[in-house]
Every structure is written in structure tokens, then in C-alpha cells.
Design brief:
77 residues, alpha+beta, two-stranded antiparallel ribbon, 2 helices
Amino acid sequence: MEKIWAATLSAGIPAEVDYGEYRSTGELFESVSERLPRPSGLYNMGKTISFDELEHMTRAVGAWLQSKGLAKGPASR
């Protein structure tokens, strides 16, 4: 598959992720956001959010999922 987005990535950010390195999606986001300079973030559909905002949002989604009965922590592999 052609990675047309790869040219837009910041220096040092790989076009692919080794998911085996991370226990959860949250850990992946934390790892990426720690390596990027501030302020940086995501731009999509005319909206920009910082990685700090993304972390806040992902924690809120995680808390909501837990409130619905989903167990906290990484899934079994």
C-alpha cells in the first residue's frame, strides 16, 4: 500500500507503528506525544488539537468505556 501520508509526518515519526511495543492505544499516544515538540498536534477536517488535548480526550473515552463495564488495561493477546 502506498503511504501517501508519510511525506507529511514530522521528522523522526515512522510511517508504521510496531503495535507489539505498546500495551494499549493510550500507551502509544503517550509515547508519540512525549517525542514531539510543543505545541504540536493533529489537524483533520479543519480542526487542530494538541496532543495534550488528545490525551485528555482519550482518557475521557477510556473512563466512559470502563463505566460501561469494559475492563481496564490491555487486552489479552
